[in-house]
Amino acid sequence: MTYFLLIVGFVLLTISANWLVDGASGLAKRLNISDLVIGLTVVAFGTSAPELVVNITSSIQGSNEIALTNILGSNIINTLVILGIAAVIYPVRCQSSTFKYEIPFSCFAGLIVLLMGTQCFGLFPNTFRGISRVDGFILLGFFILYLIYNVRMSRRTLNSQSQEEYKAMKIWKGVLLIIVGLAGLTLGGHLIVEKAILIAQNWGVPQSIIGVTIVSIGTSLPELATSAVAAYKKNTDLAIGNIIGSNIFNIFFVLSISSIIYPLKDYALFPVDAAMAAGSSLLLIILLSLSKKREISRVGGIILLLVYAIYLYILLKGI
Fold it and tell me: Apex CA 276: angle with CA 274 and CA 277, to 5°?
């Protein structure tokens, strides 16, 4: 029953996030908000809703390890597993701006969390080991800078690229979807955190292991489904941008909000997980740099999957 309810939590989380995005974007369109603003706010925030809800629930319940490993694990899975699978299906091409700016920014995000969490940041040497509230506000500042960059890039490419068109929705329907979506997210997040803690206790393993594997995989399912379908349809030019954007959102927005609500203490394998989150983006840069077409080939996809397999082996061996 525990595992069944965990799966129910993931299903609720995924479906409810879609309802929330559909309702909010349809309502925003009804209120004459531009497609550009909807895409950069409602949809972007909605895709990070599963991680955000799980983290807020974990923070409130004091389950710091799940809150921190959920984000680091999601970023590792996004980069190594989801992009790896997508590249094996069909080579994933990378846009120039993503290669020059967003992937290095994602690498920087993982690195700054590592430095903050191990007290190597230098600004606040007396804070506890982990991500403090002060650290959270610093991360939130980087998130604001990222939003400004995103708006400028979107305006610059608005006339050269096709833009998503969102359909207006009746106000009552949009409000209903938002309410139901939020309720489903709350219930799903509660089920996931509660059952993940119970599984960790039953297995006799640290919550960090459950958070960086089972919970992270579950909250990354929407990205996995989207990227796999895009690769199957050979429409991968935006897939890597969406994944990297999700990684940046996870650290600079979700992790910042989580740590502001409740400071997140580090755990035994935190340096390994944070280093892997930064290192996976660095590996992405190396693979793309070796490709004349700026793409992740099928061989590159296999390399990403093998690196994750080695990382997973190291985690499980240390139990």
Answer: 65
What angle in degrees, to the nearest 10, is found between the helix axes of 49-61 and 64-76? 160
Average pLDDT for 248-257: 90
Range of the domain at 105: 2-158+169-317
Contact call for residues 304 and 81 (beta carbons, < 8 A): yes
For 145-201, the pLDDT digits (tens) are 988 887 777 666 655 444 556 677 888 888 888 888 878 877 887 788 778 778 877
Q: How many domains does the chain have?
A: 1
Q: What's the whole-model pTM score? A: 0.81
Domain-embedded: residue 275:
yes
Q: What is the DSSP letter of 295?
A: E
First to last CA, the chain: 25
Examine residue 61 and state whether it is found in any structural domain, yes or no.
yes
Phi, psi at 92, each rounded to 5°: -100, 115
pLDDT digits (tens, 9 = 90+) for 131-144: 888 899 999 999 99
Contact call for residues 21 and 13 (beta carbons, < 8 A)? no
Q: Is residue 19 part of a domain?
A: yes
* Beta carbons of 216 and 76 less than 8 angstroms apart: yes
Q: At what angle do helices 64-76 and 171-203 cross, to 10 degrees?
A: 110
Q: Does a structural domain hold residue 163?
A: no
CATH number of the domain encompassing residue 228: 1.20.1420.30
Put residue 188 in one of left, alpha, beta given phi > 0 → left and psi -120 to 50 → alpha.
alpha
Instruction: Quote the percentage of the chain above a pLDDT of 70.
Output: 86
